[in-house]
From TrEMBL:
GO terms for molecular function: transmembrane transporter activity. CDD domains: TM_PBP2 (cd06261). This is Polar amino acid transport system permease protein. It comes from Phyllobacterium myrsinacearum. SUPFAM superfamilies: MetI-like. Residues 21-209 form the ABC transmembrane type-1 domain.
Length: 227
């Protein structure tokens, strides 16, 4: 093997790498923020007393969780455009990510809700808490705290999945790398660089999620329980 590494050929494109990383982070933050809200609402709906609501939400979750993410992106970007509903690449990418992360978040949060013992709800009712207070303080927040590690892992996985949006020419990190390697013909070096950037972004997100957990879960912070 006589391959000669040449990372200097990539130096003129450092701004492109940076912009790709920024776009990846932006897509992830928007998708996670909106997807979390949708996921929580769907988790609540899955426990609803209305069968039709449980059915509708269940169908959405099953479709998303049992189809490839790339098919979902193609359906939104190419499928809808063939019906006359076109949208920018960035918007289509984030839209697909929101739909995907919302479905997975719903099941994760629902699992946390199911773990709440009925006696805790009965005790809250005996204390005279309103239905909203019971859902917020007894069911929802403890549930999110319980499944927080699984949630953050899913969000990081979603960040890594932004690479799939390069298939519709999204200018995120992998899309930028594909262009750069076609210009420089240094594929090996290019993908080594973006692998390192993905690692950096992953650890930055982990640090951010840990900081958020310290802020919103004071009980764990006081007890020193791992987040």
């Amino acid at each position: 093997m006589n391959y000669q590494f040449d990372f200097e050929a990539l130096l003129p494109y450092w701004q492109s790498f940076l912009q790709g990383a920024i776009t990846t982070i932006q897509m992830t933050i928007v998708a996670v923020a909106i997807g979390l809200v949708i996921g929580v609402l769907c988790a609540i709906a899955r426990r609803s007393a209305y069968p039709w609501l449980r059915l509708v939400v269940g169908i959405y979750i099953e479709i998303v969780r049992n189809t490839p993410f790339i098919v979902q992106i193609f359906f939104i970007f190419f499928g809808l455009s063939s019906m006359g509903l076109t949208m920018p690449v960035f918007f289509a990418s984030v839209f697909a990510m929101v739909i995907n992360v919302g479905a997975y978040t719903a099941e994760i949060v629902r699992a946390g809700m199911e773990a709440v013992h009925p006696s805790q709800i009965e005790a809250a009712e005996a204390l005279g808490l309103s239905r909203f207070q019971i859902y917020r303080d007894i069911i929802l927040m403890p549930s999110i705290e319980r499944v927080y590690p699984a949630l953050t892992s899913q969000f990081i996985l979603m960040m890594l999945s932004t690479s799939i949006t390069s298939q519709i020419s999204a200018e995120e990190l992998t899309g930028v790398a594909n262009n750069i390697q076609s210009y420089t013909f240094r594929s090996f070096e290019t993908y080594i660089v973006i692998a390192a950037i993905y690692l950096v972004i992953t650890y930055l997100l982990r640090f951010g999620f840990h900081a958020i957990a310290l802020a919103i879960f004071p009980r764990r912070r006081r007890l020193g329980t791992p987040l």
